[in-house]
Design brief:
Blueprint (H helix, E strand, L loop, with lengths): L9 E5 L4 H16 L3 E6 L3 H8 L5 E4 L10 H21 L4 E4 L6 H9 L3 E6 L6 H6 L5 E4 L13 E3 L13 H7 L8 E5 L5 H10 L1 H7 L4 E5 L5 H11 L3 E4 L5 H7 L2 E4 L3 H10 L3 E3 L9 H11 L3 E3 L6 H25 L4 H16 L4 H6 L1
Parallel strand pairs: 1-2, 1-4, 2-3, 4-5, 5-6, 6-7, 8-9, 8-11, 9-10, 11-12, 12-13
Helix pairs in contact: 1-14, 3-4, 6-10, 11-13
């Protein structure tokens, strides 16, 4: 192989598996492109990754096998990891990166391992207060760690951690409510409640919200609902709304999340760190329902920090539907004060901070030809 690095640095961003990895990765990718870099997104074959990637322009997209770690079936993990290594190696041979950035999850494992082996700059970003298992394992291999919250700093073996905040796409800032409602076909004059359970925790949010519809309809009869139902839930959710005779706009997955947050007055949301960062950037008050099965209970830790700063109200999923309606009403009542708190929580400059550090790492390795020699 004789291909040398081009004048523009190339960065591979491993961001597959969940929206919480993908969209912060894209936010950094946007900043890198503005700084003159070429960006390759390494995603999983999951439907959510493919749907999200379809809406992204100007990126090289490469699918690599999803690798789920389980101590009960280590051979399955090793088999998947071997295929991920091969797929990533093929991608690197075709378009060698100057740096690799991992956004979390075991889809990041092969890109970081190969990046380290070939001598390019390696980085990872952790958004949550409690780092994920993949990031904890990969931490000793990378040159620098970026964290969204100070609470995560002492949870890595690698102590070179920089607090950057969680990257958010620029589209989430300075949103126009009227324009966003028109984009989604909503009435511009009526309040909007956004319901979103994320890629993993949608069913629990759906169950609680649907049980609360009669009470919600009685208290706020003119409320419009924008419901992101999640994988496999859309038709079931639609039928419940029809029986309740309530107006709703339902999507399984919505690529235009800036429009959704911009259109809403209040959100009911899980408490993944990337979702919280987007809520802050959009100044959208929310009722947070931490996903109870999240690894190391990290969503509850995220939500508590957000609530302590005045940016959200938090409720457990085990509460009654009637309590849900009371909490939603509380958010509506406190929304003005919460928006002021959200402005202080906004980390929308994080993408630029991460991109600048990654490019600095690229500069230190631009003349390093170990990758070319290893892949020749």
């Amino acid at each position: 192989m004789t291909k040398l690095y081009s004048a523009s640095p190339r960065v591979a961003i491993a961001c597959g598996g969940t929206g919480g990895h993908f969209f912060p990765g894209v936010a950094v990718g946007e900043a890198l492109k503005e700084m003159g870099a070429k960006v390759m997104l390494l995603i999983s074959p999951k439907k959510i990754d493919r749907l999200a990637a379809q809406a992204m322009d100007g990126y090289e997209i490469q699918e690599i096998p999803a690798v789920a770690f389980s101590s009960r079936s280590p051979m399955t993990f090793l088999h998947g990891f071997w295929h991920a290594l091969k797929s990533t190696s093929d991608a690197y041979k075709e378009k060698p990166p100057n740096a690799v950035l991992a956004m979390g999850g075991f889809t990041s494992a092969a890109p970081i391992v190969l990046g380290k082996r070939y001598g390019v700059a390696t980085f990872l970003h952790e958004s949550n207060a409690i780092p994920g298992r993949a990031n904890r394992l990969l931490a000793p291999l990378v040159d620098e760690i970026f964290i969204g919250l100070e609470a995560a700093r002492n949870r890595f073996l690698n102590t070179s951690a920089t607090v950057t905040g969680t990257p958010v796409r620029s589209e989430f800032t300075d949103l126009n409510k009227t324009a966003c409602r028109i984009r989604l076909g909503l009435d511009v004059r009526r309040s909007v409640l956004l319901i979103m359970g994320g890629s993993q925790g949608a069913r629990g949010v759906n169950e609680l919200l649907l049980a609360a519809l009669p009470s919600l309809k009685r208290i706020r009869p003119d409320l419009q609902l924008l419901h992101l139902a999640g994988k496999g839930e859309m038709e079931r959710v639609r039928r419940v709304y029809e029986r309740a005779k309530m107006e709703v706009t339902i999507h399984e997955f919505l690529a235009d999340m800036p429009a959704a947050l911009g259109a809403a007055d209040v959100a009911v949301s899980r408490a993944g760190a990337s979702s919280l960062a987007e809520l802050a950037a959009a100044r959208l008050p929310a009722l947070l329902l931490p996903y109870p099965l999240a690894a190391d209970d990290h969503q509850r830790h995220n939500a508590r920090g957000f609530m302590a700063a005045g940016g959200a109200v938090v409720m457990e999923q085990t509460e009654s539907p009637e309590r849900l309606v009371c909490f939603i009403e509380r958010v509506f009542e406190k929304s003005q004060d919460m928006r002021m708190s959200l402005a202080r929580l906004d980390t929308s400059g994080a993408a630029g901070r991460v991109a600048a550090r990654v490019l600095a790492g690229c500069s230190s390795t631009r003349q390093n030809l170990k990758l070319m020699a290893a892949l020749a």
